[in-house]
Amino acid sequence: MAPGPPPAAHPRGLVPPAAAPSPRGPCPRARRAGGSVGSDRHDGAGGRLPRRRGRSGGSDARGKGRKYRAGAEVPARWRRWRRRGTGLAAAPRPALALGVDPGGGRLSSCPGPNCPGPPGVQALLRKLQSLVEVPGRLRRWAAPGGEPARALRCHARARAVLRHYRHLPSFRAIEDESHAIMADLAQRLRARLRCGGTYPGLTECVEMLLQLEEPPEELCQEFLSHAGTRLEAELAALEAELPVADPSAAATPPPASDILDFVDRGSSAFVGNLCLLAASYRSLFEGRPGAGDGRLEAFAASLTARYFQLLERRLGLERGLGDTSLLVRALDRFHRRLRALLELLPAAGAEAGAALVARAARERVDRYLRALQTFFLGCLGDVRQALAAPRPPGKEGPGLPDLLATLASSILGQLKAVLAYVQLFTAKDVAFASLPYFKGEFCVEAVREGLVVAFVRWLCRTARGFADGPAERGAPAAPPALLLLLARLCLDYEATTISYILTLTDEQFPPQDTGPVVTPGPALCAEARGAAQRLLDHYVQVQGAAVAQMLRKSVETRDWLGTVEPRNVRAVMKRVVEDITAIDVQVGQLFEEGVRRAQSSDSSRRAFSVYSSSRAPGRYAPSYTPSAPMDTHLLSNIQKLFSERIDIFSPVEFNKVSVLTGIIKISLKTLLECVRLRTLGRFGLQQVQVDGHYLQLYLWRFAADERVVQGLLDEVAASAAHRCLDPVPMEHSVVELICERG
Amino acid sequence: MEDDAPVIYGLEFQARALTPQTAETDAIRFLVGTQSLRYDNQIHIIDFDDENNIINKNVLLHQVGEIWHISTSPADKGVLATCYNKTSDSKVMTCAAVWRMPKELESGSHESPDDSSSNTQTLELLCHLDNTAHGNMACVMWEPMGDGKKIISLADNNILLWDLQESSAKAVLSSSAALEGKGQLKFTSGRWSPHHNCTQIATANDTTVRGWDTRSMRQIYCIENAHGQLVRDLDFNPNKQYYLASCGDDCKVKFWDTRNVTEPVKTLEEHSHWVWNVRYNHSHDQLILTGSSDSRVILSNMVSISSEPFGHMVDDDELSDQEDQHQEEKIKEPLQDSVIATYEEHEDSVYAVEWSSADPWLFASLSYDGRLVINRVPRALKYHILL
User: Fold this and answer.
1) Which of A235, A475, A671, B151 has the smallest number of Cβ neighbours within 10 A?
2) Contacts of B12 in chain A (CB under 8 A)
């Protein structure tokens, strides 16, 4: 409202010297109205003039034009009415008092010693005087650069009286002139409204227009549209910070300021102003017709929607992980400001705001999931590199257990760190954490299922992918050591890690009893175990195939008919034993020993060779004796009756012995099938004999059941004998000698 | 269900070669070739009497060497071709020849099995497929549904197309193609497609499957790395011209659409060792037979990629007349791709499986130890397919 000392400050009509110089003091100006025709230059000097001179202002009014001369006669008439004592005179008086007193207090209550005549008359005169002065004052105050508020106040005070005495021409003239001035003012105010300005200015403007009894409907429309422009401008300023969405550009430049800054500016500028606007709108138009039909709500809703959109876009620009605490703080601030706004405007989009926060949080969690995945792949890359790195001779690289430990602990560490970050969203001091979404759904669906469970699932799937992948069709195959490592990792996950992670998650993000169904731990464990099994089986197949390939080539490319008498074990057999020994070491680093058949108590090499030599003559018996073909057939079938069917490519158990048995089975079965496709001479058979014995010497110790090794080698020998044109076997002692020599 | 039991026949020798008598469409008859390095090899003609569940056999001597592959003419019941090992001193050569069996054996004889061994008969040699310049013969293929005058043999890295002239007494090499490339390339097996007017064959070498046009003798498609390891066998879908099955040492059976050589249409992984043989049923191509060195024979039902429409296309009008609603539902329920049965009658590696040319519900499998097993498609499935 227009400032200025209240009328009561001048109780006796005497202007206190201190107040006099104030350009806004109502008194001096009023008095000098006639003399200086709207000029404010002599305010200070005029203020000191004694009140009495003011009373003779009637003559001053003459300078203003004819109308006022007519007005000057009014007091005389008044007096006449009063003398007659008519009721007509009695009635207006209180009206006059009411109309003039509050503002021009000095006029009505000026029974000072200087005042001539009875106080009643004097007061009346003063009132009339001030009425007459109204247009002048109005003109002065309503003039551009003047004080429209005072003009309004003045007009408001005078209006009722003027309207009442409208039938008197002199009053009507005053009223008309005031109206004209005020209409003029209204026009200027509208112009000001139109060209915008500060909020307080806008509000003031509208308030004054309302006092001028402009139609409120139109005004509130205008008010909103102009306030809207200002808010739009603020939104545009925010939008200007966002880089233009350009799908063709590979990477939009990162935003200039961080998200907290953005939200801060958004909330201080936009949300703050919207609050102000809502408040002033309420105070301006509350209860006025045509303003309460949800216009403000609709207006605010559309603007906040845009603001949300901008914020959403800004959030979308958050790349990578950035600083989650910053994001949480930003969202928190946003949420708090929004809550303040919602108290004023419940319809401004509370749902949308909460949803925005929830979405941002969810998005962040998803991003963490992706980051975890990337991290895991990075770790795998490191492991692969460590596995592939050439090692200087004599210096052992990092062992598989170390690699596994590093891999497992860094993944777990990363997961924990991520959980800690995500926990920021549910911290107690964060306002939006109390939203039902963050208490229930967020914990369960976003964090537990969307992050932890999803990651474990993805990990198992990815690991499994190394076994299932189309490795044979172009893609670089995973090194076997990696398969083994991942198998162990998945197995460890099944055994302990998964339950640990889930417990940790449930502690940090307690699920609600009524919440949605969660993936049970055992289901995840089963997935991990499935992946581990698949990986280990694949490891066996890959390693077995590698050894088998060597054996196959060696059998296919050799001329078994024309070969010379064997003097050595073939190099490929030594290589096979070396490779299998290396595999044994590799598997032993990560897997337990496993159980062997108890019967192999004769586990020293010496004892075994005795054992096998005692058996040896019998092994080749069927093929030596050129008996009837039926006999051979019968013997081999009888032999098979007592041996179990051996599945070559079959699932293995999670221990070293089982894995090695699998690989040996694959290798020896290959040898068997390949020998059956060849035709051998006498020395060819003898070479197979030597090779077989060598394999038996060195491979039995790796297998779960040495009878499997022996059974397969027996079949190889039998098949070789069948395929031999001249089956004369080598003396067993010679075979042993050759093998011992290496 | 008694007659669903397998029928087993034992040979005295080891054996890999098995074929149905292709030209025979009434009697169930298979030919088995033996492998023995020290005794005269034989071809056993196995007649299966379906009604009495009895096997009758006739033995023919095949004295030139052990048999690695055997195939029969599609036109003449009495004509067959073998690939056999000829051993001389320190050299083994695999040769191929076309033979005629004695007239009275063509349609089976009903001699008692006892005397058949005493008066074994010999094959009559029609002609040799001269391969001195081409290397070891891997297999001989007859033109499907042809007049029995065109054969293709695979010798090392060569494809040889022969014309049999003068009642098969003379084999003339009409055209040939050689597979060039790094290393020693060697065809392991091949099949002649019954589609496209019999102008296409498919071959396998190492891990690759190739298609050839027999008119131009040029390669028409190539499935690189069809299997992780050696490809052992191929077969064409008899009803879908672009569909091809392959099997190999990676224990897998793969189904290909030869128009898309990058990915198999379907992969089966049921065997626990190398798969040596894959055969489509001649009439119902959803039935797939595979034999493996894990000593098992597996019959699979590959409905989803067969020519058989999914479910049964029975007119609704017909159905509405029938009162039994339950049966309708059962009929309409489509079958899933599945393993129908695993046959474990063998105790050694199974190197050959073949469908009978006369009875589409019957098949034979042969393991290395000389055991021939005759089995039938389970009745339930048979009725499901037929009804």
Assistant:
1) A475
2) 629-630, 633
